[in-house]
């Protein structure tokens, strides 16, 4: 008899139906006490539950459709790093790659078909198959155009249907890998042209790499077979101890073998240089010394030779750059490169290695020109190099140090910006109370009263403080902007007459505008403030440089295409099309120790009582909030240059709208109705309540969102709800969402010391108005009247 088995899911469903029916029958038996009723309920439960489960099995819920991949976001994330990154799909097609990948491989070839040798392509293909199988794979020692690479491949994606290829270039400290690649390439050929045969040997004496001339002399026509073979087997020694190539026999040219210890450790590879000794003498001749100097000068890393007396014999170009040495007037001793505290340690180490120490050592020293950034100095004893007794190696970390300074500065500016924004927000609450109470007192006094002038003075100073908080908010990128699509030359033209008056008679103002400038999206009023602040600072620098104030201020606008940005190779400025505004002066310039601090709030180099130190910080905040970048460049005594880059807006530019006179508002601010005022600051709530009550409104108050809901439940619907945005326990937007559930058309007026556009991101509500702090009594009354008038 044929047998069949239910599917696993069906068997599970049957068990669930029986168990559910039995449970239901037990409950009925317990409640009713009738076995007949329990049995009937058991059968009915099995039928119903079984039908539901069967329908569920026959109609499975479809899985969520896969979300499309946001390749723009993926590429942006890939651009954040310096490594070359590419992504391929299951069919092996290239779907995404960053700019570093394009620059490394001169285009967008699809892995594993990269510009590598056959062995490298094969190894990369095997690693790709391993990554599909195991999830990850890695390949070392790939070589493309003389660059040493390692590849890391990982399977990724929601359906694990993508491969992420990451190519990492060899670091400078990996000298063995770099040197092995250089010896087999053009660098090795240049060494051969200078008469130097060079080979890199593994610790057991086998050849890892050798230049072309050594391979030809040692192996002849079969010189490609030298790799991996014992190097000593290629040499022979005669009775006088002279070394020759075994292939050339005893009649061949004698050789001088130089061993260069450039890495420490028993397992470190050895660099060997061979020179023809045509003089047939054991000592190293002058011609050989010249070859050694040629070898040192061609090294891609910083190297220097020091004699037994501790004096420099030679420094190659990389060493000069790393140490910041003036090639015209080089130092005599290595100790002259470092700070006074490190001189003795360097001199002792060189003396020790010059007297016989054969290993190498690393020292952390501080260069005289950069005392705050320690660098690694490698010292090794030298043998067979003529007058040279010590070999020095110094890593050029200027680029790394620059990146560290920029990251530290950006982090500091971000932290200071957050602090400034928080201080400005709290200070705005205090100023709102001060200005409001001044307005209330002025209502009880008239001009000529003994107290009127004093109150007016307090109010004036409060407004000055309010302008400072606006500058702090600008620096912290939390001010309210009104962006438009415009052209930078139009903004400069708007303030040109004002700039001419500010510059005076002795400072000449030159303005140059480029062609084909792309439109930008920014607040025109704030951009005008940027131009004025930069121009005023430039004027002060010019006056300081010349007692008579003579000088030139140049303002230039020009287009900066993406190709030019790519050539800049900036780690801060993303590759895109920009419109640049450049302000350049012929003033005193900015000292190097001051330059990193100029955009910080309250930092100023002016005399005490002159300037608040918020001019350039305001400029920085406006530019960053507009999506742009600003850089300062200066050399003491040669003036300063400020370069501002705003991204080109894709939409076409529009001319600035003509000024339209607003419709005059009614002078009468008297109103009627009930207003619910929600504010967590007692002083702001008190002055706002008094101000609105004076205008005829009935005011209900609450100190947070929860209390406001209780007041609404007790008193019913008000005519207007005025609320702060940021409050403890329940914030304003959350409270309004609960209120709108009951009163969907209730007018809302939010007030806050933060920027409106920043708050709009968290306020997903329609038909709400906004009143920035600090505000006066009249501004509050006008805002309430306007909102109520639009009901």
UniProtKB/TrEMBL annotation:
UniProt KW keywords: Membrane, Phosphoprotein, Transmembrane, Transmembrane helix
Stretches that traverse the bilayer: 35-58
Known EC number: 2.7.13.3
Residues in Response regulatory domain copies: 674-788
Occurrences of domain Histidine kinase (ranges): 422-650
Keyword Membrane carried by entry: yes
Residues recorded as bearing 4-aspartylphosphate in the entry: 724
Reaction(s) catalysed by this chain's protein: ATP + protein L-histidine = ADP + protein N-phospho-L-histidine
Enzyme class: transferase
Protein name: histidine kinase
